[in-house]
Amino acid sequence: METAIPLIGISTRDQERGSFSKLYGQYARMVHGILLARVPRSEVDDLVQEVFLHAWRMLPSLRDRNAAGGWLATIARNQAIDYHRRTPLTAELNPDSLRQNPAPPEALEVLETIGNLPEAYRETLILRLVEGMTGPEIAAQTGLTPASVRVNLHRGMKLLREKLEGKAP
C-alpha cells in the first residue's frame, strides 16, 4: 500500500521507483558486462533484466546504498551461476569455424577469446573493452580496489594479446 509523504505529495513507492531507476541507469552497463563475461551473448539482455528484477525484490535487504555496486555485481554473478546450473550443455556452431581460411580476428572472435581467460581478467576486460567503462568506474561500481582493476586490466590485456597472436596465421 502506498503512503503519501506529507508536503511533497509523492508516494513512497514512486520515490522507490525513482531511486531504482537511478540505480539501473548507474549500474546497468556493469551488470551487462559481468554477465557477458559469463554467459552466452544471446542470453545477456534477459539476464540483465532478471538481475534488476531480483534486486528490486531484494531492495529492502540492501543496508548500505553505497554498497549497491558490489551488491548488484554479486547478484549478477549468482544469476550467471544459476543460468549454467539450469541450462544443458550445448555448443554453438560458428559458421566461420567451417571455413578453410578463417577470417582475421573480429569482435566476436576477440570476445570468445576473452571468454576463455581467467575470470578476474575476463570480467574487467569486458567492462573496459565492451562496456567502455574506465578503470576507476569499474572499481567504483564493482567494489574492487583501483589497484586490483589496474592489475587485472594490465595482466588481462597482456594475456589477451598473447592468445590473439597465437591464433594468427
Walkthrough of the structure:
There is one protein chain. The chain is mostly helical. It is 65% helix and 0% strand. It is built from 7 helices and no strands. It starts with 11 loop residues before the first helix and ends with a helix. 24% of the residues are buried.
Structure at a glance:
The protein is mainly alpha-helical. It has 7 helices and no strands.
Q: Which properties best describe this structure?
A:
mainly alpha; Arc Repressor Mutant, subunit A; 169 residues; single chain; disordered N terminus; Rna Polymerase Sigma Factor, Chain: A; 7 helices
Which helices and strands, and how do they pair?
Blueprint: H1 12-36, H2 44-58, H3 68-86, H4 107-115, H5 119-130, H6 135-142, H7 146-167
Helix pairs in contact: 1-2, 1-3, 1-5, 2-3, 5-7, 6-7
